Amino acid sequence: MNQKKSDSIQHDLYKSQSLRDLHWVITSASLISDSSQDPHRSEDQDLSLISEQELTEFLVPYSRFRVGQYFEGLVLYWLERIRRLKIVAQNRQLFVENQTVGEIDFLFEDEAGELTHWETAVKYYLHYPAENTTGSHFIGPNAKDNFEKKCRRLLEYQLPLSETHFPEVTRRVAFVKGIIFYNPHLAAPTPLPERMSPAHEKGVWLYCSELDWLKTQYSEAVYQIREKPDWLSPAVREPGIEKLLTFSELKRTLDVHFQKGDRPLMISVLKQTQNDCREIERLFVVAENWPEQT
Q1: Is residue 185 a part of any domain in this protein?
Q2: pLDDT band per the 50, 70, 90 thresholds, residue 10
């Protein structure tokens, strides 16, 4: 791809949230080793001809609160409208003797005509090296979820469903994207879980009481609290138009938030450029009792 076209695509991506999210879904690193290696996937997917209005309208049924549902909508747009593949089934419930046994996310014919089964997920896990009741060291913001549990569900239960119900399927893929967050005050993991890709995207997590660490690392940064489903691509914001928080404003906001409850918050750390503010770090802030929440 020539530089002029690449610059044009980047300009379009930065002015459209939905295009930035679509680009992230296509090109970001997999969380699971080798599982989402699609031979027809392009790192330089040309999104310059996509109608922003068409994409926005397509995503309306998927753009409510749930991050996973929004992610699925973007995957469907990529498969159906960009790669122009034949979608055989989407969110197809499977039954045995009138009992629901599961659901298939995507069944489609790829560019080579192979019937392919994808299970999709976007997940966020925090590395916690101490022993804890979850049985994992990679735990979701909601501590009921963890990396190993999700992998077992995807690879040992959901993907094998098509072996029985659609034996003509020739490829089965867990298409899983997301971020692993690390606490700068805790030891790095050695080794990673068996199924975790070493190339995964990384962020930082802190207890609310550790927030001053941000001030030492990013003296001139501003901050944005990311609300669902806006958890995918790195934040790009226009200063003066969208409310961005100073460190002191962020700290006050989080103090109030954690006085009322213990729901973790995702935050973008942004740096001012010539024209806008762009994310330089992704962060989760958690309550002092995480992950042993009641």
Answers
A1: yes
A2: low
3-state secondary structure of 270: strand
Q: Which residue has the tokens 């906001």?
A: 253
Q: Report the alpha-carbon distance of residue 7 to residue 230 in Å, rounded.
A: 24
Three-state secondary structure call for residue 282: strand
Residue 166 to residues 46, 106, 117, 157, 199: CA-CA distances in angstroms?
33, 12, 9, 14, 32
293 located within any domain: no
pTM: 0.91
Residues 109-134, mean pLDDT to the nearest whole number: 95
Of the candidates 115, 35, 38, 112, the one whose C-alpha atom is nearest the C-alpha of residue 78 is 38
- In terms of residue numbers, what domain contains 193? 3-286
Q: In which band, very low, low, confident or very high, does the pLDDT at 213 lie, cut at 50, 70 and 90? A: very high
H/E element, 11: helix 3-15
Please indicate, yes or no, if residue 52 is contained in any of the structural domains: yes
Q: How far apart are CA 31 and CA 134, in angstroms?
A: 20
Total tally of structural domains belonging to the chain: 1
Neighbours of 106 (CB within 10 A): 23
Are 82 and 38 in contact, with CB atoms under 8 Å apart?
A: no
pLDDT tens digit sequence for 150-162: 999 999 999 999 9
d(CA 106, CA 68): 14
DSSP codes of every residue in 193-252: -TTB-TT-EEEEEEEGGGTHHHHHH-TT-EEEEEPTT--SSPPEE-BTTB--B-HHHHHH
Q: What is the pLDDT of residues 225-267, one digit of tens each?
A: 999 999 999 999 887 777 899 999 999 999 999 999 999 999 9
CA 206 to chain centre: 19
